[in-house]
Amino acid sequence: MKIVNFHENVNVKRDVDSGTKEQQNSVLTIIKNVQEQGDQALLQYTKKHDGVDFQASELRVSEEEIKQAYHEVNSEAIEAIRLAIVNIRDYHERQVNQSWMTTKEDGTILGQKMTPLDSVGTYVPGGKAAYPSSILMNIIPAQIAGVKKIIMTSPPLSNGKLAAVVLVTANELGITDIYKVGGAQAIAALAYGTETIPKVDKITGPGNIYVALAKRAVFGTVDIDMIAGPSEIVILADEQANPRFIAADLLSQAEHDELASAVLVTPSEKLAKAVQEEVEEQLSRLPRKEIASQSIESYGRIYVVADILEGIHVVNQIAPEHLEVMTKDPLRLLGKIRHAGAIFLGEYSSEPVGDYFAGPNHILPTNGTARFSSPLSVEDFMKKSSVIFYTKEAFDHQAKHISTLARLEGLEAHARAIDIRLEEQS
Questions:
Q1: Could you give phi then psi for residue 321, rounded to 5 degrees?
Q2: 131 is in an annotated binding site
Q3: Binding residues for Zn(2+), per the UniProt record (predicted)?
Q4: Of the candidates 81, 17, 65, which has an alpha carbon nearest to the alpha carbon of residue 212?
Q5: Residues 6+ apart with CB under 8 A from 49
Q6: I need a surface site. Which of 93, 187, 220, 399 has the fewest CB within 10 A?
Q7: Which domains does the chain have, with CATH numbers?
Q8: Which DSSP helix (H) or strand (E) runs through 265?
Q9: Is 15 annotated as a binding residue?
Q10: In Å, how far are 95, 97, 261, 323, 377 from 144, measured between CA atoms?
Q11: Which residues are identified as catalytic?
Q12: How far apart are CA 323 and CA 304, in angstroms?
């Protein structure tokens, strides 16, 4: 892990989500075929990419499959899932915004009406790993928002089933509308609908480059949560921080994939060297050593700064997905941190605490987009409508000003829509 002195510009952004021309064309072809052929296209792509030969009736997960899943997941895992659900629900319930109205003396009523989306589709990655936490973070805020129709898709395993823990987690949330479809074809099905899979209003959830490109392509037909890049962590630490903790947390992100970014920012050269050594030592014992090693080599950095204030400047430049603050008094620094998806304060607020259990959403802005974006929240599953009610008294009082503004913009019909109401009264 490289130790470098801080320079004015820090760049750890990765141009990784646009895909190759071949990947882009492949995704557009898949989307077109799903639009035109529906279930038949889903079955063909599932056989081609997942090696599973389904009938259309087998795309939806059966009640029996869900029941069987409970025999394959141990009680300790189920307890952890249930406790995480409690924490995540409790946190997100505090995010609910209510509709509101305000009345003026002339009788004008202005307000904002909050309405949940009608339907949402959640994509859950499959392959070699299962991600129950992704299910919790996508579905719970949608449920709290009041979304009535929530469906889930995930690529099948080679045996034609979904991972048992995925089915158990979904069922614990009351989600039974689950389909064994993955990749760009799943995104297309959610966006446009097929004979079996209903179309939705919004698609959320992470996936590979083909999923990301498909979400980008269907945006506008449906809403999406975000185009997420590889995971990243920045740790801001002073001389009192524990190098073993820091190294472990850096590697917790590096093991995600080769493009993940792990960065330490510190004014202590002693700590920098200790962390560098500790990363190497812990890395040698990781099951995903090859992935983590490539991540650390390509995107791992230790920035040595003059002091903590300069460190905060570096943090705000990077605008990381995850920021851990391991300093003597981390709460004192909170007000100076402007750009970060999630902020973990203190040495026992390790990033995996937030990933799985604490309650805040782990679907966060990546690749510097924390400068202008926020974590997934209940509000992402609601839409706002403005409410306007004018009395005759209020209209008469304001009409002249409204038509004046319309004519300033050269929109005579707008002005006349106001004037005609005044003429009716004369």
A1: -65, -55
A2: no
A3: 253, 256, 355, 414
A4: 17
A5: 155, 182, 183
A6: 220
A7: 2-16+229-358 (3.40.50.1980), 21-224 (3.40.50.1980), 390-425 (no CATH)
A8: strand 261-266
A9: no
A10: 9, 11, 32, 27, 10
A11: 321-322
A12: 17
Average pLDDT for residues 339-364, to the nearest whole number?
Answer: 95
Chain centroid to CA 347: how far? 25
pLDDT recorded at residue 227: 86
- What values do phi and psi take at 348, rounded to 5? -100, 5
Classify residue 233 by burial, with Cβ atoms within 10 Å: 0-12, 13-18, 19+: buried
d(CA 395, CA 220) in angstroms, rounded, equals 36
pLDDT digits (tens, 9 = 90+) for 17-55: 578 899 999 999 999 999 999 999 999 999 999 999 999
CA–CA separation, 56 vs 39, rounded Å?
Answer: 6
Ordered DSSP codes for 30-63:
HHHHHHHHTHHHHHHHHHHHH-----GGGSBPPH
| Residue 23 in tokens | 């990947």
Run of H or E including 93: helix 75-93
7 has binding-site annotation: no
* 160/54 Cα distance (integer angstroms): 8
pLDDT in tens, 274-295: 999 999 999 999 999 999 999 9
Q: Which residue has the tokens 């999406």?
A: 224
Q: Percentage of the chain surpassing pLDDT 70?
A: 96
* Average pLDDT rounded to a whole number, residues 62-85: 97
Whether this prediction's pTM lies above 0.85 is answered by: yes
Amino acid identity of residue 9, one-letter, is N
Residues 407-416 have pLDDT tens digits of 999 999 999 9
What count of Cα atoms within 13 Å lies in the side-chain half-sphere of residue 100? 4
Tell me if 161 sits within 8 A of 154, measured CB to CB: no
| 253 in a known ligand binding site | yes
